[in-house]
Design brief:
Layout lengths: L3 H11 L9 H8 L3 H13 L3 E7 L6 E7 L7
Antiparallel strand pairs: 1-2
Helix pairs in contact: 1-3, 2-3
Length: about 80
């Protein structure tokens, strides 16, 4: 079972365009969560195979950093 932060992050990522990515700082600001909670949520979502983490540009702040993107529907709706 996913934590509340992980569910909020996953739902936010699902609503974005597939190629869009978020850094933990921008995800925290969008979801009003502390960065540590966002990082724990990202780790949780990576563990279930729902998101990918990679080093590229964040679509919000445009910083070159580690970002998270949603995988192409590995889960069953």
């Amino acid at each position: 079972m996913l934590s509340e932060g992980a569910l909020r992050l996953l739902n936010d990522l699902r609503q974005q365009q597939p190629a869009e990515s978020l850094c933990p700082d921008c995800a925290g600001r969008r979801l009003s969560l502390p960065k540590w909670d966002v990082l724990k949520s990202i780790r949780e979502l990576i563990g279930m195979g729902a998101v990918l983490c990679r080093f590229t540009r964040c679509h919000i702040c445009l910083e070159e950093t580690l970002v998270v993107t949603v995988r192409a529907r590995p889960w069953a709706d």
